[in-house]
Amino acid sequence: MTQARPGQRAVVLGAGMVGIACALSLRQRSMDVTVLDPLGPGAATSHGNAGVLARSSLMPFNHPGLWAQLPALLRGKNPGFRYHLPWVLGQWRWGLSFLGHARAADFQETTTALDALIRHSGTVHRRWMAEAGIAHRRRDDGWLFLYRSEAAFDSGAFGRETLARFGVATRVLDAAALHELEPHLKPMFPRALWVQDASSVDSPGEVVRSYAAWLQALGGAVRTDEATGLHRHSGGWTVHTRSGTPLEADHVVVALGPWSRDFLRGQFGLRLPMGFERGQHRHFHPAEGTALCRPVYDTAGGYVLAPMAQGLRLTTGVELNAQFAPPHQAQLEVAERTAREAMPLGDRTSDPDWLGSRPTMPDCRPMIGECPGQEALWLALGHQHIGFSTGPGTGELLAQLMLGEPSAIDPHPFRPQRFLRA
Length: 422
Fold this sequence. Notes:
The protein has 422 residues and is α+β, with helices and mostly antiparallel strands.
């Protein structure tokens, strides 16, 4: 592993939550840091999520119960899961590997690793928000899983048992207790699970942009530009850019989220086994006289409704499809119709609908570490739909690995070597 020294130059590719977190962690260790992103900080995948920072996110989609659910999911009728068959068939190796990691042993390794990364990230998030002056954007009152029937609640027993095994604080609510917490939800949920080990923010994109502004105040640089090529030489790396101004670096960090796959293949012929969990969101004005205090996940409807600075944000479930495929409005329309059954929503706001791709590795764990066969090239990518929750922990772990510090969590489950070879 190539060890960095304080004062050396690092270029971070990507200004989402993960990229900015890597840059902040390196800058706080006296590295000379420049971030490149053609869209600017927090403008892509990090902009569109539900803003939840939850320990319950340790549950990957490919859990052991997936096999029993698979026939129903493949029928394409689940509002929280859609797929484009030609793309899935074209990505059959990724799909088979994803299903292969639904075994109990893999599930145990993944949940243990993600729990450590999420817990560490939560601690860092809290510290960084205070130091960046944005602690007011965070709410610490958890989030809710809503169940439309007792049978649906019973079917979630494995998930609740997993959360209990990891010590995640939860509380089961009946309809009356749910009404006390969220009085403006319609009385159609006989059960709910209050995940108390969770926070949320009122604008994920603004949190990332605030972190980027803090990075610049600390002496880091953020450039609205794109890396078009990397060249390795005896002195380090030359990063060629769209603007034509090259950058010299001792270390390069690739934190390009869903764009990482094509970039690494084009530069080095590396084949990342990366799929895309696409998702959409739409904003609404709250109906007059109503409010939502915390994010809620309607387990039957497959959507999350979260209070944001922009209004109520409705986010859809997963669509497996190509990264740049045109949006399919059907899933978003169904989510809106189903959400209106549960909560009085006002008119849509003037904000346009959003579509983003969440990059997912077959084991639902990100890659964090030095790229095999590429000296001083570091990877921080593949965070599926929890990059906002796990970005700060990723940044800290990557900086610790790069500078040879003791790591706060076990880096082994996130090693790039599990899918890449020199």
